[in-house]
Structures are given as C-alpha cells and as structure tokens.
Amino acid sequence: MKYALLFVETEQFEQELAAMSQDERDRAVEKVMRWLDDHAGRITHRAKLQPAHTATTVRLGEGDEPLITDGPFVEGKEVVSGYVEMELNDLDEAIAAARSWPGCPVVEIRPVEW
C-alpha cells in the first residue's frame, strides 16, 4: 500500500529554525537527508515545497466563481512543507517511519488512492 507522509511546519518550528546557527541548520538538514537515505528503498516520490508565501489557494463551492487567494491560509498556523510517498505494508509501518522523521514536528499520514 502506498502512503503519503506530509511534513507540516509550525510557527514555533520556523522560529527555532531561524534562531539556529548555520552549523546547527546544517546538522538538522543532514539528519533529514539521512532519514531520506534510510528509507530510499520504499520512497516512490518526494518533494520539498516552496515556502508558504508562494502558495495560491483555490476554494471551490463558495458561489459561482472559486475564491482565489495568495498564500495557503489554512485554518491554522501549520503549513505542509514537503512530502514523501512510500510503499509500505500497512499503517503501522507508516507510523514507524513518521515517528523517526527528524524534521518538522508534525507528520500527517494518508493512504494514497491512485
């Protein structure tokens, strides 16, 4: 079964990242790259998304025309910053992979339908 692990940044995570020295940031990125390498055999696709301010949101079903706004403007202060698709046996394996993620503090897991 294929699962998508969505990596979600919080405001606090962004502030902590901004407060890090370059060496600390380099070590954090190294941990993420190591995680990606460790799981490379099961990752079928991955991407790092551009920053949230580059997003455009289209809301359908709110009148005759969709509402289009700059930015993600989700109902909260968390933004998806990247994702991987992984071929895993079940949700337990997806949870185990998410628990070992060394990057941003929230990982949403979703089964991929197609």
* Low-pLDDT runs: none
Judged by helices, strands and strand pairing, the structural class is alpha+beta
Q: How many whole angstroms does the radius of gyration measure?
A: 16 Å
Strand order of the largest sheet: 2-5-1-6
CATH top level class name: Alpha Beta
Task: Kindly report the name of the CATH homologous superfamily.
Answer: Dimeric alpha+beta barrel
Mean residue pLDDT: 89
| Gross morphology | flat
- Strand % is 25-35%
Level of helix content?
A: 25-40%
Examine the coordinates and then state which fold CATH places here, giving the name of the CATH topology.
Alpha-Beta Plaits
The CA-CA distance between the termini, in Å, is: 10 Å
What would CATH call the architecture? 2-Layer Sandwich
Write a short abstract of this structure.
This protein is α+β, with helices and mostly antiparallel strands and 114 residues long. Helix content is 31%, strand content 34%.
